[in-house]
Design goal:
The complex is a heterodimer of chains A (about 375) and B (about 160). Chain A is α/β, with parallel strands linked by helices and about 375 residues long. Chain A is built from 12 helices and 11 strands. The chains are: A alpha/beta (about 375), B mainly beta (about 160).
Chain lengths: ~375, ~160
């Protein structure tokens, strides 16, 4: 099979309200950063994939708002609605298709411009569920209750995810919410939907991320050391919560196994050096780690408390601060990929982890982690 | 961003996405809602191949990829699979609901999958996964999911 690599990344700073920037302004910044990073000009890009959501952007065919700023004029531009990891998945397939050599992938959203509760309520089935008025936070609270009931994990234990990730964000210049906080601060913050308090939830954010994916034939012709895609998979669970075991994520377990198989990884705990995952809520970091095989079910909290997931721990998780420190919907998974690329190049700056040869980036689509996308990235082919 | 904006409030264009939209409920949901409205009965389709009974009702068995043609009655009582308690007035909460709003994922006796609905007539602190709950039907029923008013604990 042909190979592809990520050869450029660009991130805007994640902010609560980029009121002075349009979608195109954000894309212009992220795309130019990615091109500069790769040592390319827009003429070196032969196709573009944008990732956005019409509902979040308040317009239909929302990708068209960023086409010009993504240099898509006269190029083949295609659009994905969903998390940025899925847009990048499509970009990767294009790089391998034989038709293209260099794919620019962007993901953007401005949570500040809409009403998250109403937008996520619209993800529920309109006939059977939407009128009941649940949204992303109340739905994930339901998953958190199911997970905690089954595992015995407590809200205090999960709160440590918030402490770690907000703390890591102090070292990440693009993070929105760097904070030195304690478990007590999390437990004293406003209860939004039991057991999720304000500091258990990722914030509303604005941001855009861009990456350049290149076929192996050209991956080494530009400025930066290519970061190779070794494994890549996504899997999707049932839509209705009542069809799933909400306390688990079978889709993530399957996606991770597929990605490990493609990468030839037999012992992920030993072979993966760091992880950037989709911690939209504190309990999710624990559940996602467990389903990907980095801890026994219900036991990730013990490794977390031992400091194993710290920046200087045995397996750094969300050294960037993760979604806790900034959650631009749609772009968030693409930020995870970009962060792993910086780490594997040794360019992560103050939040650089020591051993970084092989990294895992993870994105989520849908309510309560209905669909998961897992990337295994590596310094070596 | 450019310095021309220094010290100046950004221009913000206030608008809303407000598009009337009508969903055809489909024959499967219609049959379910007509039974709620007219009979105060909860019915569900069963897969002819694996025998699973689905709530909310749907036309195709997701596991067997066959059309569900048979309908069965399920109990108005069941078990709470999980729950959620909103303490903040989330924008998505219907105007007629008062805080705290409790939602339950309820597996009714006779069904193989659980359905989302409100829990009420209970102190949120007393809600426990595994508790037994029973459907309370709305007095005014119009053929929709809120023809069930809520579920309440079985005492």
């Amino acid at each position: 099979m042909d190979r592809a690599a990520i050869i450029g990344v660009g991130m805007t700073k994640i902010e609560a309200n980029k009121s002075r920037e349009t979608f195109a302004d954000m894309a212009w910044e992220a795309v130019n950063k990615a091109l500069d990073d790769a040592g390319m000009t827009i003429a070196d890009i032969d196709n573009v994939v944008t990732t956005s959501s019409d509902f979040w952007d308040g317009r239909t065919i929302s990708c068209m708002a960023v086409g010009d700023a993504s240099g898509a004029a006269d190029k083949n531009i295609s659009c994905i609605e969903g998390d940025g990891t899925y847009g990048a998945f499509y970009g990767y397939m294009r790089a391998l298709s034989g038709s293209y050599k260099t794919t620019l992938v962007t993901g953007h959203s401005k949570g500040s411009q809409g009403v998250s509760s109403l937008l996520t309520n619209a993800a529920f089935d309109p006939i059977y569920e939407r009128g009941l008025g649940m949204d992303m936070i109340s739905a994930c609270a339901m998953q958190a209750n199911a997970y905690m009931n089954k595992t015995g994990v407590t809200p205090e234990q999960a709160a440590l995810v918030s402490v770690k990730n907000h703390g890591n964000a102090l070292k990440n210049p693009v993070a929105q919410l760097p904070m030195k906080i304690s478990v007590g601060d999390v437990m004293k913050s406003e209860m939004i939907a039991d057991p999720l308090r304000k500091l258990d939830c990722s914030p509303i954010s604005d941001g855009c991320c861009a990456v350049v994916i290149a076929h192996e034939a050209v991956a080494e012709k530009f400025k930066k050391r290519p970061i190779w895609v070794r494994g890549l998979a996504f899997r999707t669970d049932a839509f209705f919560f009542g069809d799933r075991d909400l306390a688990r994520s079978n889709a993530l377990a399957a996606a991770a196994q597929d990605a490990y198989k493609m990468a030839g990884i037999t012992d992920p705990k030993k072979e993966i050096d760091l992880i950037e995952l989709y911690d939209a809520f504190t309990y999710q970091e624990l559940l996602w780690l467990e389903e990907m095989g980095f801890a026994e079910y219900g036991k990730a909290t013990e490794l977390l408390a031992q400091g194993q997931f710290d920046i200087d721990g045995a397996l750094p998780v969300n050294a960037s601060g993760g979604l806790m420190a900034g959650h631009p919907v749609i772009a968030a998974g693409l930020y995870r990929i970009a962060e792993i690329v910086l780490q594997l190049r040794g360019e992560a700056g103050a939040h650089q982890v020591k051993k970084a040869k092989t990294g895992l980036a993870h994105g989520v689509n849908g309510l309560c982690g209905q669909s998961h996308c897992v990337w295994i990235l590596d310094q070596e082919r | 961003m450019s310095d021309i904006f220094k010290g100046i409030e950004p221009l913000i264009y206030e608008s809303k996405i407000n598009v009337p939209y009508s969903w055809w409920a489909g024959d499967t949901a219609s049959k379910f809602f007509i039974n709620l409205r007219d009979e105060k009965k909860i019915i569900a389709p069963r897969c002819g191949s694996c025998g699973k009974v689905f709530l909310p009702p749907r036309k195709v068995c997701p596991a067997c990829f066959t059309e569900n043609t048979e309908w069965v009655s399920v109990s108005d009582e069941g078990t709470l699979v999980s729950y959620s308690v909103a303490r903040r007035k989330l924008a998505s909460i219907p105007a007629d609901k008062k805080l705290p709003v409790v939602w339950g994922l309820v597996k009714l006796d006779g069904a193989d999958t659980a359905i989302l609905h409100f829990l009420d007539d209970v102190d949120p602190g007393d809600v426990k996964i595994g508790m037994r709950v029973k459907a309370v039907f709305a007095e005014q029923r119009t053929g929709g999911i809120r023809d069930i008013s809520h579920f309440k604990p079985v005492r």
